[in-house]
Fold each of these.
Amino acid sequence: MTTHADVHRPQPSRRYLVPLLLHVALPLAVGCAVYLVVRPAPALAEWTSQAVGLDGRPAFRVRGWARDQLPDAAWAYALTATPLVLWEDGPAAARRAWTAIAVVLAVGWELAQLPHLVPGSFSRGDLTASAAAALLAVGVLYVARRRREAARRPLHERPT
Amino acid sequence: MIAKLTARLRGADTRHLLMLVALAAFVALAAGSTPG
């Protein structure tokens, strides 16, 4: 049975665009912005900072989690959100498998810094922030998917 | 065997490939954002 929601459902390209912008591009932009204006230490951030006239120096003096953990959390959120958005209407097995890989990568990247398998220095704060952000992405996009599925159901099947 | 593999790849969901590219991009971003 075709529902009102089915008829007015956006085309696939538009269906993915807004969630990708909101849950992937926006957190990545926030993380990049922190590197650019608060801690332009990585070579690319320093180069960009100089290119936009900030001279590779922090434009704002910010301390604490907003400087240290926010970029990691934003990266972990965007990474975990990517499979959840891309596989929103795909097979559940594929969505779960890719999401599990993304969560393992989000948390594993920080853990792998402990034995210096990947660049960076391990911090418990970063690990907690990354794990919390990955769980937040799973939670937020799970609720969003349930709401969309409920909206697609015919009116007589919806709970009153 | 190659024909079988090609047919299978043609039928595969392109989102698998997108995911591989996205994961590689995320890893590159994380590696590139290390101070030093």
Note: Chain A has a mean pLDDT of 86.
Amino acid sequence: MTIIVPAQSRRTDRDVQVQPMCDFWFWLCPWFYE
Amino acid sequence: MDTQARVRCQTSPFNVFAQSNQGTLVFNCFTGALALLDRSEVKSLAAGEPLDQALQSLLINEGFLEPVSNSHLDEIRRSYRAWLQTDSTLSLTLAPTLACNFACTYCFQRNLAPQQAMSQATQDGLVQFVNSLLPGKRGLSVVWYGGEPLLAWQTVKRLTAEFLHICQRLGIEYKAAIVTNGYLLTEDKVSELPGLRIQRIQVTLDGPASVHDARRLPRRGGSSFGQIVANLAILKQVQSIEVNIRVNVDKETAGCVRELLTFLADQGFAHRDNVKVSFAPVKNGMGSGEPSCLVDDAFSLWQARLYREAQEFGLTGNWMPRPRRGSCGAVHPSSYVVGPTGATYKCWEAVGHLEMAVGHVSDHRRLEQSRWLSFDPFRPSCAECSVLPLCLGGCPLPRIVSPNQPPDESWCHLVRSSLELWMLSATTMTRGTML
């Protein structure tokens, strides 16, 4: 098995922040942008 | 001794597989791990019985296997509840005006009261609203929104002074962001941003000058691209401010985004820590519908290609799927949107639609947000979906506005097709751990 991208942190401060979002692309696309 | 090797485990329901010419790719939507497997590894993963302890440990650590006693879905449910109960920050999106100096061809707010601005009495009510809700919190987070918030710059400054005063008195953090078309973001305003604690800015460009100027039209006539780019050139020098250049993508703009990226790189926007380009679909907002919108699979294809190109130009970071622990602020009890009349809402797209208001700043005790807070990301079709950790049920708005409508699965297609495209392109990344 070759790990290409390792598991990300399971819980970070950002995870529990409340981000007001007009849509899921706001602020650098929260779920598809790192 | 490795205790994980003794754990009874099973295949994570959040694994997504894709076939590449190098083998089988597996991505775990709960942990964000991506791996390339050979045939025997695929078989043992499918059976939940790895060949040896070392492989089992690795598969558990990366999330491809889950302990039977503590499933990933259980963890996601717990995390979501924890997110809902996190009330350390009061999160406000404030529209000090619905007026806008642009008349964009596709704007979802174009039919709203265009000259509506926040009166002094409403501003006072808003300050009192914040005063009432803030005790016990550790911070206040504000996003300035509109309309065009720079048209109400004095209101932004006055309210910021009030908010800073309250936060200082309570000894808590204050931070702000702004969504603006950037046209009025001149040097004098840029110099005021740090004092207003504005740390993030989103400015939209719709393509290179010729395309942008045909769509994002100043009401007073003329063009906007040159002025916005000149303002961005000043803004990018302020290292402490994160600038997101949002590029709206639809059938008209998708093919010429590369021209815009080339231009931005030539103008010195590339390889800067504080400037990033992102792409968003022009989509049907409340009450609007545009034939030029890209349907989801088409947007996915463009999205993957455009991020790859932006990355090559040094205009974006490493684009990758990220597991979520919470949903949109619209369904969180400590998050509100306030329009210029003082009406409070839960969703940005609801601003100006009074039938969607949950209350008014004049009475913080009467906020009727139960239908928003009851949003359930774990409805059966979502709880069984392999990409649930990436979207947590997607945008809550359609399900809250039209609970009896069949589920809108356009988000699901977008997530899945984007994910597969990303997995296939990610094999060119630097390899990590090997077993």
Note: Confidence is low (pLDDT under 50) at residues 11-34 of chain A.
